[in-house]
Specification:
The protein has one helix spanning about 285, and strands at about 5, 15-20, 25-30, 35-40, 45-50, 55-60, 65-70, 70-75, 85-90, 95-100, 105-110, 120-125, 135-140, 145-150, 155-160, 165-170, 175-185, 190-195, 200-205, 210-215, 220-225, 230-240, 245-250, 265-270. By secondary structure, it is mainly beta. The strands form six sheets. The protein has a four-stranded antiparallel β-sheet, with no helix packed on it. A four-stranded antiparallel β-sheet has the order 2-3-4-5, with no helix packed on it. The protein has a four-stranded antiparallel β-sheet with strand order 6-7-8-9, with no helix packed on it. A hairpin with a 2-residue loop joins strand 7 (about 65-70) and strand 8. It is globular. The N and C termini lie far apart (about 45 Å). About 45% of the residues are buried.
């Protein structure tokens, strides 16, 4: 499968790509450097916003981009004609990581233990009912990529340190079942960010192998993209018809000969992506300082 570099940036830890269909732009972060990037796909122009804190997942609200900034949730206007001034919408008590948007518009975000040696994480639900997050799920070591099915009946959650992807079902706001879905498929790499396609396939970026693997609904691998960067971190669909797969990567400890480490890549795919729901109606109305 043909893969190309689409942004001349070499991120320390590129992560969390999000496609904005309305404005034809792609957002992603350099998580360790605290940088937020926005690329206009039509012109190739890139805007960089320095936030000076560790960054986690991104989600699109109706008006704003919602970003996990260490232990805070912030909002940045999506409209490229508006000055990209971030606003804090609320603070949490735990470091925030990757996130996903459920069909009902709630943002689910993974949390990390403040004590890195304990490696105990969970999931928070950031719903419409105000600034109090709901801590609904625990028992993960390092929750990472989060992707809901189209009908909202189940969610796939990556637990990187367990080399595992779990599938959970919810009823009345509570987790009623959790089962291992893919375990140790890439023994030399850690599963990281994910995205889903229209056939229910899940695309998973693997840290350490330079691969993005597609699994069908039964958890069987059906496609592998070899990326010219060992530390692939996440992926999302975008472009016309959601037929482009954007892939982020990290430089990390790559050698000087790995000239494309940390780049943003794109590959053309056969199965279009599943559109990601919009988070909330307007983050400024739904959350308080």
């Amino acid at each position: 499968m043909n893969i190309e570099v689409v942004a001349d940036i070499r991120a320390d830890l590129g992560e969390s790509p999000v496609w904005d269909e309305r404005y034809g732009q792609l957002w992603w972060v350099d998580a360790l450097a605290g940088r937020l990037y926005r690329r206009d796909v039509a012109t190739g122009a890139i805007v960089r916003l320095e936030l000076s804190h560790r960054l986690g997942g991104l989600a699109l609200g109706e008006v704003d981009l919602v970003a996990m900034l260490d232990t805070e949730v912030i909002a940045v206007p999506r409209d490229p004609t508006v000055e990209a001034v971030p606003r804090r919408v609320f603070r949490t008590g735990a470091p925030l990581h990757d996130c996903g948007v459920a069909p009902d518009g709630a943002i689910w975000v993974g949390t990390l233990s403040p004590d890195q040696e304990r490696a105990e994480g969970g999931l928070l639900r950031l719903g419409k009912a105000g600034a109090v997050p709901q801590g609904l799920v625990d028992g993960y070591r390092m929750p990472n990529g989060i992707s809901w099915t189209a009908d909202g009946g189940s969610v796939h959650v990556v637990d990187s340190l367990r080399h595992a992807i779990f599938r959970s079902r919810f009823a009345d706001g509570r987790e009623v079942a959790r089962e291992p879905w893919v375990i140790g498929a890439e023994a030399d790499g850690l599963p990281d960010g994910v995205c889903a396609d229209l056939e229910g396939g899940l695309w998973v970026a693997y840290w350490g192998t330079g691969r993005v693997v597609r699994y069908d609904t039964a958890g069987r691998p059906t496609c592998v993209i070899e990326v010219p960067a060992r530390y692939t971190t996440s992926c999302c669909f975008g472009g016309p018809g959601l037929r482009q797969l954007f892939i982020t990567s990290a430089r990390y400890d790559s050698g000087a000969e790995e000239t494309e480490a940390g780049a943003l890549f794109v590959a053309e795919v056969d199965v279009p992506g599943l559109p990601v729901p919009t988070a909330w109606r307007d983050v400024r109305d739904d959350l308080a300082d």
